[in-house]
């Protein structure tokens, strides 16, 4: 048996496309070996039955030899016909052409799995076996940094060309997809985005290309993801999805059920940082997807910088998945140095990665941003603060010195103000000395806080918040602070909240 040597490398961000080997409702990718032992051309299982092996009956001893009918002439493979080819060549099968369109009543049945699994194309079976053998003696914590090399070794050894896998790019996002074919009003595809990250360029392209596809999305930060995604399809907003990051695959099932996502799901992308290392069980045999009746044909998943425990967890999952022969990794891409993860942009002379809408400020050593308040959150203390929490998991800003105060004032629109994290804690009585920073920082000494004349005063009652202003009035000049109630924050003279969070490291 040939041995495969792996060159181990260090990677910090990996995108992988997984494909369901045994789903009769999912499209078959085109894989061709070289030299061509077999040639398999796409036959969409949604409209075409699988060919039946031709097994001639064994003649009885007393019977005269039977004359086999002449086998139909095999058609030539046409590279230009990648989306709707209509023949399967040799390999013990007869010729299978695309039949007449199914009646509407039978279309739904065409997507239901038959009682037994269909045969997996030989090339995919061999690729799965090759990866399993390649990783057989590799320590589990080294499988993660070896996945790119292993795929290259196996694909090269088998002479595989993967023409049906399309790479879609949009901004800082990339997704691989085996395009659905032969869709109609009666036969739709379903595309699910778990994690929007303020970027729907690929989904918008798919919406135009696949007019008969349904789109469903969710993200831990509804602002601005919900408004971005709504033109495409249902968006589920609930903060409990953040518990996914702690390891709950139940939330994904809950999201799919809540938005009434049909099965099979042709494409699912998972782009929530922290989720990727805690959700693997959902795809295994007899896992949550099986229990809930969901079939996911293809899934793209972003693997962010792992620690040693995460690498070992990844290796355990990959080994088990390849042993089960249910899913197989088909495509992989490792992000290069100097890039940011999806949903983040380079800032501070390309030294730091900040979420969209934020910028790195050296005075804070953090990413900061000033955002218009959304009245749908409600005129309460939590309603204001949650608008930072739901925006890339940030928090109302902490300002400790004049340099930070000046940097923040420069971001507040003229004539407006921005709420900060200097507040009366919930449930405590108002007092001039009762304001505290939400992050637990100690209160700065004079000349901080830079209160405006007579501030704080609690003039209107319930003035538990503090805002920095960018206009002149009774509070004083630009950059001074005043206390105000949650109701007043939505007025014409404030209208914004200042948020802060740590930057993400550059991808190596």
Automatic annotation (TrEMBL):
Residues 1-27 form the signal peptide. Keywords: Signal. Residues 54-80 are annotated as: Disordered. The keyword Repressor does not apply. InterPro entries: C-type_lectin-like/link_sf, CTDL_fold. Residues 57-75 have a biased composition (Basic and acidic residues). This is C-type lectin domain-containing protein. It comes from Steinernema hermaphroditum. The lineage of its organism: Eukaryota, Metazoa, Ecdysozoa, Nematoda, Chromadorea.
